[in-house]
Amino acid sequence: MSLQHIHRPKTFEDFVGNKEVIEAIQNAIAKDSPPPAFLFTGGAGTGKTSIGRVTAIALGCHPKHIDEKDSADDRSIESVRKMKTNLKFTPMVGTKKVVLLDEIHQMLKPAQNALLKVLEEPPSHAHIILCTTNPENLLDTIKRRCHIYQLAYLTVSDQHKLLKRILKKEKVKKFPPKVLDKIVDLANGSAGNALKYLDMVIDFTDVKKALNTLKSAGATQSDVAALCRVLCNSNMSKTNRWYQIQRLLKTFTAEAESSRRPILNWLSKILMDSDLDTGAELSFMMTHFEKNFFDSGMAGLRAAFFRACSEIEE
């Protein structure tokens, strides 16, 4: 069983980071009439579904009876109709029924319209929790009927705090600081990624072997920097830039989505030191990396770099 599964938060106190957001959620739940609908937004790995599950339990839903669905797999009007019918009946265990819809932005627009009717008149014993990485793809009318909470990526210190907490629970007394720093570097603020990388090397005694394993698993800062330096090199033609990026991508083994945010961060740093004209071009380049690569994978990452290169003005 993975560390992510074993150490999945069971209470709000188990979370690291996003303190103000969690306090706001707790305050909303503590009211005499908690909001019928919650919308959790944030990047991949920020803990949206984990907070959604804990919120459901805090509302009075039995853990085994949280109706969790992935909208990427089940996004039709019919699924919303079934959900509406199911919500009419009071829970047999616990005081509340909760439906948790993950990746809600993947739901088709007709199904979103059907969901809107459920949000307008939910049963008093029911709550709906929505999670999304792309709230801009949701109907505005849905967002207006939800209490919205945006989750941020963890800071470096919070990532260290989380990893040390897990190591203590796993009774690992000595863990190489270099390996811990490498995990934080690769995780880029994602608690899920941090635990995934820790899981890969937690039993290693050889520091060099652990570092090499992590290097092959994720995009290092040097990998990202090499790609971004070529993309932003105004002394090269766009044809030559694409040729050099092709060469780098052929040996790029990191997972596409986990690389997207480091690329955006790197481009953002250059943007802050740029003049107006260069900044405008960089800002336009960044738009190609705004949408996630969950579905498209490495093909999506390559296409994003190609579009960024092809649209450079010479």
Description:
The protein has 314 residues and is of the alpha/beta class. It has 3 domains: 133 residues, Rossmann fold; 63 residues; 91 residues. It has a 5-stranded parallel β-sheet with strand order 2-3-4-1-5, with helices on one face. Helix 4 links the parallel strand 2 and strand 3. Helix 7 crosses helix 8. The longest helix is centred in the C-terminal third of the chain and has 16 residues. It starts with a helix and ends with a helix. 35% of the residues are buried.
Please describe the structure with a list of short key phrases separated by commas or semicolons.
5 strands; Rossmann fold; 314 residues; 8% strand; alpha/beta; 3 domains; globular
Which CATH C-level class of the largest domain is it?
A: Alpha Beta
* CATH homologous superfamily label of the largest domain: P-loop containing nucleotide triphosphate hydrolases
CATH architecture group name of the largest domain: 3-Layer(aba) Sandwich
Q: What is the string of helix and strand elements?
A: HHEHEHEHEHEHHHHHHHHH
Helical fraction equals 40-55%
Backbone structural class: alpha/beta
- Computed Rg: 22 Å
CATH topology of the largest domain: Rossmann fold
Q: Strand order of the main beta sheet, please? A: 2-3-4-1-5
Strand content: 5-15%
- State the shape: globular
